[in-house]
């Protein structure tokens, strides 16, 4: 595969090609398709991508980038040869690495952009390393594992002038744009409450960490997979999917689905940092009146309530429910009408009405569903070509155009948007983890000071102001010499 110069030289290269074509045509501009034939994409309009995380979601991400027609998959990286096998067959010319650090060190001059589709706990270090080399980045949701990481990546994206996007493809869909138009037209008045729910987790949660370790498969570099996380022996049924239920690696149902489900109301209402958080969580009993205590893992279900300030100064209640817990059906919804998509959904309550949608903002509707006034609201928010399916191509084209371009400014989920959204999602997890903080009593038993309280949140300074012990979950400690590099 022919190596391409970094994208930072792209503007001058395109200018040279344009000038050469003009001269060859006697100073007449010649369309690119005439020079290269129908469907031709010039090298100057393509980027070279390195895919970090080549199996599972990484595999589909890489394929979608390639199908945009403006990307070459030049490099693949995965700690597990088994997971990478299909992508390596699909892109046989792509050079393969196991360690992303070696990939970036040796090949950064040949790479324009990086996709990162790995377990949550390693997103931030990989993303920061790529951005510090001037590489554009596409990162799967949630953007990061903790709040501090999200803030640092958001600031770094602007510092290094790179093109960024988070993998919450619903943000490119038509549905959320229609909801914005309805809200801006005043069809439901000012929002007062938001309800978000999911049937996740669909992996084991609320269980004890396995006591017996075992030998990892020969194709898996276990130490590299652990990355920033504390060292533990390899256990079965963790890789490649169930890591989501353990705090060292995943972010639970919130991290898995909230960037898809909370995004529509965030965008519709223009929300920022929350001001308060409180929660309740489901319990697992291991004996009669004996509640299990498994702080290493996410709970089987939870209900988080966040508060945000609206432009009017009034508080907005924002509810998140997972593990199959759902809000009460709105009176405006008929008894046989489905709420959301059944297992997941969003309801926004306002002073004049309500609206509802499914996961990713799909199928937005005003309540009651018989309302017709929504059809009269004009389309004022630009649509993304191919909707949520165009989320990948949107980022690729913005990478080609460069930071600050029109394409860059139209991105659906750059870090400037995805970062604050992720922080609010992870604020819910901070509340859930604070719920399990316990202190031994002198006469036996434990106190749980994080339960039955609300956490007051100073968003700009990333700090809980009324329960200092909760702040341990704002920023985690990395193992060994792993570092975010800031």
From TrEMBL:
Residues 50-167 form the Gfo/Idh/MocA-like oxidoreductase N-terminal domain. Residues 215-264 form the Gfo/Idh/MocA-like oxidoreductase bacterial type C-terminal domain. Transmembrane segments: none annotated. It comes from the Bacteria. GO terms for molecular function: nucleotide binding. Gene3D superfamilies: Dihydrodipicolinate Reductase, domain 2, NAD(P)-binding Rossmann-like Domain. This is Gfo/Idh/MocA family oxidoreductase. It comes from Echinicola soli.
């Amino acid at each position: 595969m022919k190596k391409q110069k970094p994208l930072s030289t792209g503007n001058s290269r395109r200018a040279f090609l344009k000038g050469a074509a003009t001269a060859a045509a006697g100073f007449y501009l010649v369309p690119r398709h005439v020079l290269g034939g129908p469907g031709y994409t010039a090298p100057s309009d393509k980027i070279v991508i390195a895919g970090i995380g080549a199996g599972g979601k990484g595999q589909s991400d890489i394929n979608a980038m390639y199908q945009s027609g403006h990307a070459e998959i030049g490099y693949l990286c995965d700690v597990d040869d088994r997971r990478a096998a299909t992508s390596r067959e699909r892109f046989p010319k792509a050079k393969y690495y196991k360690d992303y650090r070696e990939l970036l060190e040796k090949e950064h001059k040949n790479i324009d952009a990086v996709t990162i589709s790995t377990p949550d706990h390693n997103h931030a270090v990989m993303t920061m390393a790529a951005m510090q080399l001037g590489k554009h980045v596409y990162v799967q949701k949630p953007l990061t594992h903790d709040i501090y990481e999200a803030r640092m990546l958001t600031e770094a994206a602007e510092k290094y002038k790179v093109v960024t996007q988070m993998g919450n493809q619903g943000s490119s869909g038509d549905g959320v744009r229609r909801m914005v138009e309805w809200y801006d037209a005043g069809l439901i008045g000012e929002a007062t409450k938001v309800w978000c729910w999911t049937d996740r987790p669909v992996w084991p949660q609320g269980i004890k960490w396995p006591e017996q370790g075992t030998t990892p498969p020969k194709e898996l570099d276990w130490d590299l997979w652990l990355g920033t996380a504390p060292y533990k022996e390899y256990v079965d049924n963790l890789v490649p999917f169930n890591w989501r239920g353990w705090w060292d690696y995943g972010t639970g149902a919130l991290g898995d689905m909230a960037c898809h489900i909370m995004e529509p109301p965030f965008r519709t209402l223009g929300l920022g940092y929350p001001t308060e958080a409180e929660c309740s969580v489901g319990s697992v009993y291991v004996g009669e009146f004996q509640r299990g205590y498994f702080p290493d893992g996410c709970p089987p279900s939870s209900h988080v309530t966040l508060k945000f300030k609206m432009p009017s100064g009034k508080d907005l209640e924002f509810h998140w429910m997972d593990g199959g817990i759902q809000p009460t059906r709105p009176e405006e919804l008929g008894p046989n009408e489905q709420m959301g998509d059944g297992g997941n959904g969003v309801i926004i309550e306002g002073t004049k009405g309500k609206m509802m949608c499914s996961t990713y903002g799909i199928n937005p509707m005003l309540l009651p569903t018989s309302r017709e006034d929504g059809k009269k609201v004009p389309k004022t928010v630009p649509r993304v070509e191919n909707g949520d399916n165009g989320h990948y191509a949107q980022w690729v084209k913005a990478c080609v155009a460069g930071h600050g371009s029109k394409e860059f400014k139209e991105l659906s989920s750059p870090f400037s948007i995805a970062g604050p959204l992720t922080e609010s999602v992870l604020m819910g997890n901070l509340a859930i983890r604070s719920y399990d903080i316990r202190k031994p009593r002198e006469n036996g038993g434990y106190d749980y000071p994080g339960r039955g309280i609300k956490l007051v949140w100073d968003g700009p300074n990333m700090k809980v102001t009324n329960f200092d012990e909760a702040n341990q979950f704002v920023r985690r400690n990395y193992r060994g010499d792993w570092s975010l590099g800031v």
